[in-house]
Design a protein that fits this description.
Blueprint lengths: L2 E2 L13 H12 L16 H9 L3 H7 L1 E4 L10 H11 L4 H8 L3 E4 L12 H16 L8 E4 L20 H7 L2 H17 L4 E2 L24 H18 L2 E7 L20 H8 L1 H8 L4 E4 L17 H11 L5 E3 L6 H4 L7 H8 L4 E2 L4 H14 L4 H17 L7 E2 L4 H4 L3 H12 L3 E5 L11 E7 L2 H12 L3 E7 L6 H12 L3 E6 L14 H14 L5 E5 L14 E4 L5 H11 L13 E2 L6 E3 L8
Parallel strand pairs: 1-10, 2-3, 2-9, 3-4, 4-5, 5-6, 6-7, 7-8, 12-13, 12-14, 14-15, 15-16
Antiparallel strand pairs: 11-16, 17-18
Helix pairs in contact: 2-16, 3-16, 5-6, 8-9, 8-18, 9-11, 18-22, 19-22, 20-21
Length: about 625
């Protein structure tokens, strides 16, 4: 097998003269049948794909439709825990055996989900990827895998931790307003993923977050302006491609105005058709124009298009809107089928068939693989699904693998992976980009920038790692620090302890995480939000100078509008904490601008408008 150097940013694509290819294909296969899937413009791969499909059994074709998770850090040798997970999911011991059983089109990496435990150091992941590809190539049709992961960047959805470089994430990029930074962020992520054998990243998130109480998107979105989201999402699509992986725009047709997390329920987006076209669709149009390889569906209902049917299962959404109206010809992958937004509505033997009927090509982690696999086979055998419909999706999957060089070069250089993942230049770029995203929302008392010199600083609020990283950065600048970390829901005892510590401090820095969150059930602040707000107000009442750092969603300031000094970081990576401290000391002039508007807590208007941001 050919070993690809991981320093290569793009896989080599085979290019043949069009005239010679047409003659060769006609001689080898005869003229393309009208019933064949794909397009004549798919040269130079079309003839090879049609030939391969003609030799595939129905079972092999159905296998290509699935993207499965596997447990263990090696394809053939796994821990007792991973073995038990593979047995529970698939009735086999190892990832290689799961590949042999189903011959799936793809695998997705996770860390803690279902005890999958795929991701360790770069050499281990690269070795696992090569082992999985070897298992796939050992099957009769020798079709390599698409290996995927959710690595959006930022603090929320990042399966690879250190030494992988943590880019600032979408809403931070939205605050930075730079297409070049969005491109480079995606390119760095892509290079690091490609080095360990990942071929596809389920990113960027192209949702327009116009609901401050969205429980699942938030800072995963670039912002609330469709134009800004479109520009930066398209830049990321191009960046991922430049980095050597394919991009997946998600969650179509838009998950940005939901009050329910589709992991746990089925949200409805009650936009009119006009709003859907003006708010939700522009980023997907831009991603398509940028050449996005895949689009992921949303487990949301859009009543204006098809009432009571999740987009993942809606023919009107996937075929009518995405394929026919938007003209999209690439892959459509479902969001995870074991999420409640799908599984609670459609049984395990119904969901995969319905998604295929709607127009999906790839079925991501069904809750019961044997049930799902057999359901698709039975649907074809009974006539509920035509084999022609299956062929359309299989053709797209195989075309994608050819176009992205996976057939030609599926292996990676294990020795090179540790030099690429976490490379010094990647780290430097991550910090520089992050420095351009921190947003100063309020500086009413002119507290910032802080003067150099010794001071006693209390670091309070949310996040064990966050408060410790912040304290370390402050100590490096001459401060004497004490930490009073109080979690997401500070107790009264913790609040009292922080207030007592503030009395002997010259400065208080308090971090919050979703202090504006509202319960969908009651319409009132969640217990965590109420407790964090109580902590902030108690610290303000001490009369000590207080810097409030909103470490996740930027809406927190609405819960304590009297706070005179507020900084938004849009995440809590180590780079974002460092940027926060740099801004506090005037080492970096904050240039970030709010990528969303911040409403007043009572709903009476806007507290801070889209685009607001102060300098020093």
């Amino acid at each position: 097998m050919t070993v690809r150097s991981a320093t290569t940013t793009r896989r080599t694509m085979i290019r043949l003269p069009a005239v010679g290819l047409a003659v060769a294909l006609t001689a080898a296969f005869g003229p393309p049948a009208n019933s064949d899937p794909g397009n004549s413009g798919d040269a130079p791969h079309r003839g090879k794909i049609i030939s391969l499909m003609n030799h595939m059994t129905l079972e092999q074709k159905v296998g290509q439709l699935f993207v499965i998770e596997v447990a263990g850090r090696d394809a053939n040798t796994v821990s007792t825990t991973a073995k038990a997970t593979n047995q529970r999911l698939y009735g086999v011991d190892t990832p290689a055996q799961a590949i042999a059983k189903y011959q799936p089109g793809g695998v997705i990496y996770f860390t803690t989900r279902n005890n999958d435990d795929n991701i360790g150091d770069p050499a281990q992941v690269a070795t696992l990827s090569n082992g999985l590809q070897a298992a796939a190539l050992a099957q009769p049709r020798k079709i390599p895998l698409q290996i995927s992961v959710d690595q959006e960047g930022g603090a929320l959805v990042a399966r690879f931790g250190a030494p992988a470089v943590q880019m600032p994430g979408n809403m931070a990029l939205g605050a930075g307003r730079s297409e070049a930074d969005a491109f480079r962020s995606a390119e760095v992520i892509g290079k690091e993923l490609a080095a360990v054998g990942v071929t596809q990243d389920y990113a960027p998130d192209a949702d327009v977050n116009i609901n401050p109480n969205n429980p699942v998107i938030g800072i995963r979105s670039i912002g609330s302006d469709p134009g800004l989201v479109s520009d930066l999402a398209a830049a990321q699509v191009r960046g991922f491609r430049a980095g050597g992986v394919s991009a997946v725009a998600k969650h179509f047709p838009g998950h940005g105005d939901t009050g329910v997390d589709s992991h746990y329920g089925l949200p409805a987006v009650t936009h009119t058709l006009e709003q859907i076209h003006e708010i939700d669709l522009p980023p997907f149009r831009a991603a398509i124009a940028a050449g996005v390889d895949s689009i992921m569906t949303a487990h949301v209902v859009m009543p204006a298009i098809e009432p009571d049917v999740p987009a993942t299962m809606s023919h009107k959404v996937l075929t009518g809107l995405l394929r026919e109206e938007l003209g999209y010809e690439g892959l459509i992958v479902t969001d995870a089928l074991d999420m409640a937004g799908a599984a609670a509505t459609y049984p395990a033997d119904v969901a995969p068939v319905q998604a295929l009927l709607a127009g999906a090509d790839q079925l991501l982690v069904p809750p019961q693989m044997d049930t799902a696999y057999n359901a698709v086979l039975n649907a074809v055998n009974s006539g509920a699904l035509s084999e022609k419909r299956i062929d359309e999706s299989v053709y797209r999957i195989l075309l994608h693998k050819h176009q992205r060089g996976i057939f030609q070069d599926p292996m990676v250089d294990v020795a090179a992976a540790p030099q690429i993942m976490g490379a010094p230049q990647h780290t430097a770029d991550a910090q520089a980009i992050t420095d351009r995203t921190t947003t100063l929302v309020k500086n009413d008392a002119d507290l910032l920038p802080l003067a150099a010199g010794p001071r006693r600083v209390l670091v309070a609020g949310w996040g064990v790692g966050t408060t410790q990283t912040m304290a370390t950065a402050l100590t490096a600048r001459g401060a004497t620090t004490q930490i009073r970390e109080s979690g997401t829901t500070p107790s009264q005892t913790a609040i009292n302890s922080a207030v007592a510590a503030a009395q002997t401090s010259d400065l208080v820095v308090v971090s919050t995480n979703n202090a504006y969150a509202v319960s969908a059930a009651t319409g009132q602040p969640t217990a965590a939000a109420a407790a964090q707000t109580k902590l902030v107000k108690a610290l303000l009442a001490t009369g000590k100078p207080v810097v409030v750092a909103a470490m996740r969603n930027p809406y927190d300031v609405a819960s304590f509008p009297e706070a005179p000094t507020v900084v938004d970081t849009f995440g809590y990576t180590a780079h974002q904490v460092e940027s926060l401290v740099r801004v506090m000391f005037g080492e970096v002039n904050p240039v970030g601008k709010l990528p969303v508007s911040i409403p007043k807590a009572d709903g009476s208007g806007v507290l801070f408008p889209f685009g607001h941001g102060l300098g020093l």
